[in-house]
Amino acid sequence: MGKDAGGRFVGIVLVSHSARVAASVAELATALAGGAAAVPVAPAGGTEDGGVGTSAELIAAAAASVDRGAGVAVLADLGSAVLTVKALLAEEDELPARTRLVDAPFVEGAVAAVVTASTGADLAAVEAAAADAYTYRKV
After folding, report:
1. 21 neighbors 44 (Cβ within 8 angstroms)
2. Which of 7, 31, 52, 98 is the most buried (most CB within 10 A)?
3. pLDDT bucket at 36, cuts 50 / 70 / 90
4. What CA–CA distance (Å, rounded) separates 58 from 71?
5. Count of CB atoms situated within 10 Å of the CB of 125
6. By CB neighbour count within 10 A (0-12 exposed, 13-18 middle, 19+ buried), where does 47 fall?
7. Is the pLDDT of residue 21 over 90?
8. CB 16 within 8 A of CB 45
């Protein structure tokens, strides 16, 4: 594991139906990762006009903004957010190379992804850590 040869970190995109939810989860995950200033994290929530929904354009722009060449992990909240990311991935030229939709709980997965990325882990390790968040028990 570790940063890629260029010292770049995996980028994280958080896709929600709500711009406020996406931004808040990004803020929380970054704070819980000790600030993790080196990890590029971008929220992609809501629609271009500020409504509730998902936007392929906002998701693609967020992914491009966090791409440092080490891969991009995308976490989505539910429903059409997941479908929109899948559609972008199917286009093959809409998202940066090495972009993966991560099957993980949105909040816990985001925290695990950012914390793991902040250690310099590669895309596979970031994806595995986020997915492992499904096992977090609260009681």
Report:
1. no
2. 98
3. low
4. 18
5. 17
6. middle
7. yes
8. yes
